[in-house]
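Hi all, posting the design record for the shared folder.

TITLE: backbone redesign
STEP: 1 of 1
STRUCTURE INPUT:
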């Protein structure tokens, strides 16, 4: 397993230390309407850690940090700012041959340490750190045009599932928090990124050719009128999905 086996007991919301991580400013307001404070966010991630780590554990991460809560300025963080036993540094080489340090989480304490520092969203690569150049998670983002009803997006999920099933692939629906859906396809880490991206592109254009009145694989807004954009672009080295 990419992450170690995790057993996390439910943490009281008033705890001042969670998974060995000291919690500062526990009553800081993170979300408003309704009000959610930092200690409640920490308690949530402690409860969710076992399930989250089976998904994000061992994957290069980018996180959205909101030190002063979501009502203030947040920022996207890709590189480690502090070492922690529950995290692992991952050297990643770019297309110019330059290496930069990224990070992944390997234990629940690493997840809690990130939440303690204000990380609220966890965006992952499509590959694990140990098999960085062999992706194992194909993601399609169904992005509807303005005004399209939810039942059209649901139909899009069913159509995409039908197409993927025909190609011998099992897929899963994941809500993205926005107005669309993500459809995720787990794969064995065997193909390289070029092959992976080409397959994703081909699948999106196959959707468009089979149902041209419903879908487009073109990202341009003026090509999206009344249709759902099948966004396949996340299937690229270095791209992330929430």
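Okay, here is what came back for every position:
SEQUENCE:
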């Amino acid at each position: 397993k990419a992450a170690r086996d995790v057993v996390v007991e439910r943490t009281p919301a008033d705890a001042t230390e969670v998974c060995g991580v000291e919690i500062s400013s526990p009553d800081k307001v993170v979300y408003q309407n309704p009000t959610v404070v930092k200690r409640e966010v920490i308690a949530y991630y402690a409860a969710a850690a076992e399930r989250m780590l089976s998904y994000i554990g061992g994957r290069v991460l980018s996180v959205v940090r909101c030190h002063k809560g979501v009502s203030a300025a947040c920022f996207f963080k890709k590189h480690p700012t502090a070492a922690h036993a529950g995290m692992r540094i991952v050297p990643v080489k770019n297309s110019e041959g330059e290496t930069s340090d990224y990070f992944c989480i390997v234990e629940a304490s690493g997840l809690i340490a990130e939440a303690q520092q204000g990380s609220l969203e966890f965006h992952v690569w499509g590959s694990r750190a140990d098999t960085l150049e062999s992706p194992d998670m194909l993601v399609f983002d169904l992005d509807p045009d303005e005004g399209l009803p939810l039942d059209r997006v649901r139909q899009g999920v069913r159509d995409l599932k039908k197409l993927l099933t025909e190609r011998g692939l099992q897929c899963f629906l994941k809500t993205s928090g926005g107005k669309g859906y993500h459809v995720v396809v787990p794969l064995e880490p065997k193909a390289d990124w070029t092959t992976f991206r080409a397959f994703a592109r081909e699948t999106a254009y196959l959707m468009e050719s089979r149902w041209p009145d419903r879908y487009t694989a073109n990202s341009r807004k003026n090509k999206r009128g009344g249709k759902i954009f099948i966004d396949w672009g996340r299937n690229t080295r270095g791209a992330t999905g929430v």
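COMMENT: The longest helix spans residues 38-56.
Let me know if anyone wants the other runs.
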